[in-house]
Amino acid sequence: MRFHVLTLFPEAFAQPLQFSIVARAVQRGQINIDVADIRDYTHDAHGTADDYQFGGGHGMVMKPEPVFEAAEAAERAQIPVILTTPQGELLTQKLVEELASSPAIAIICGHYAGVDERIAEGLATRPVSIGDYVLTGGELPAMIIIDAVTRLLPGVVGSPESVAGDSITTGLLQHPLYTRPAEFRGMTVPEVLLSGHHAEIDRWRRRKSLERTLEHRPDLLSTASLTNDDRRYLAGLGYAPPDAGQVEGRGADHAQD
Ligand code: ADE
């Protein structure tokens, strides 16, 4: 997978992508991250990449010419061209999965008050927001996209199960995790996890996922695949699941009917 990043701040990418799983993916040649400086494609001695807004208003706007030229220099093939912007489609695991199936993606990091609309209309194919808050620029969102996509690529994360069982990928938040010691400052690991009883462990984990999802992200429950047992458990916690979206046939560990 090749990432083409177009940014006014290429130095922002030097450190953050140089450790752990993403760095290892680069070393192994599983991903390639090209960072292009948009300012290299400006046309004046000052490297002017932004200008005042037509119509007036606060904040500068990124000029179209250098961004188009930087993108054209980066790749000729038809690839998704992401524009990081609070006005974009929300980044979800589903969108990350879709992006991970492409051989390459370009990411234009928006900055200042925003980008000239012709960049959004004539160049970017996917405006993407990482959340309902406004950052100072699109560099952190670009790194988040690179990180999330990279860990889905074959062979990048040790075990495929750890990716398949991800929080959110399963439609629910992840259950709690524990490691040694079994007791720490008076806090103990739930007995069931030490029991070696795999069906009981699966059942406990499933229920903890349901509890957490209900507490922190109840919106996910309307689209998650829930068994009748899940629904009964949630009902016992005071949640009334909508009728739509019921999917049966999960693994035997979950289907208690
Ligand atoms: N630029 C500024 N805020 C952003 C956000 N929430 N998502 C993507 N790009 C942004």
Descriptive overview:
The chain is of the alpha/beta class and 257 residues long. It has eight helices and ten strands. It has helices at residues 20-27, 64-74, 93-100, 117-122, 139-150, 160-164, 198-216, 228-236; strands at 2-7, 32-37, 50-51, 61-62, 81-90, 104-109, 114-115, 126-129, 183-184, 187-188. The strands form three sheets. It has a five-stranded parallel sheet, with helices on both faces. Strands 3-4-7 form a three-stranded mixed sheet. A two-stranded antiparallel sheet has the order 9-10. Helix 3 (93-100) crosses helix 5. 25% of the residues are buried. Residues 248-257 have low confidence and may be disordered. The structure holds adenine (ADE). The site of adenine has 12 residues, from strand 5.
